[in-house]
Design a protein that fits this description.
Number of helices: 4
Strand content: 15-25%
Shape: elongated
Helix content: 40-55%
Number of strands: 3
Distance between the termini: 29 Å
Length: 125
């Protein structure tokens, strides 16, 4: 799969993607706004020029997101203390996690792989 397909798939799912080389390594930045309109970005490396490695990086990012923890950290940094802001921040991060997971699934499918096929059947719910 060509790098241009990464941009196309990201755009179809509401992400803006950009690529950059740093020290000979290829990184993709994926940006979008959260449900409440806050800009959000994450970066994933495409090791060895393989989309499968990019997918693994995105999956790792998804697994690391804990919406409540992210919301708490955001509240401390921003100074927002209203309970409604916390609930919104949790919802935002949960949606970002879902959107990033869908991105990984679509990239894997386009690369001829299936993310779901590698999951045990008990995790399909």
């Amino acid at each position: 799969m060509m790098n241009g397909n990464v941009f196309s798939i990201a755009a179809q799912l509401g992400w803006t993607a950009s690529a950059q080389y740093k020290e000979g390594r290829l990184f993709f930045d994926f940006q979008r706004k959260t449900l409440s309109g806050v800009p959000f970005t994450f970066t994933a490396e495409m090791k060895d020029g393989k989309v499968s490695n990019l997918v693994k990086e995105i999956e790792s990012f998804v697994e690391a997101i804990e919406p409540e923890t992210c919301a708490s950290e955001w509240m401390v940094q921003s100074g927002a203390v209203a309970p409604s802001r916390f609930r919104q921040a949790v919802s935002d991060m949960d949606a970002i996690r879902t959107d990033a997971w869908l991105l990984a699934c679509q990239l894997a499918e386009a690369d001829g792989q299936s993310v779901l096929a590698s999951l045990p059947w008990s995790q399909w719910n």
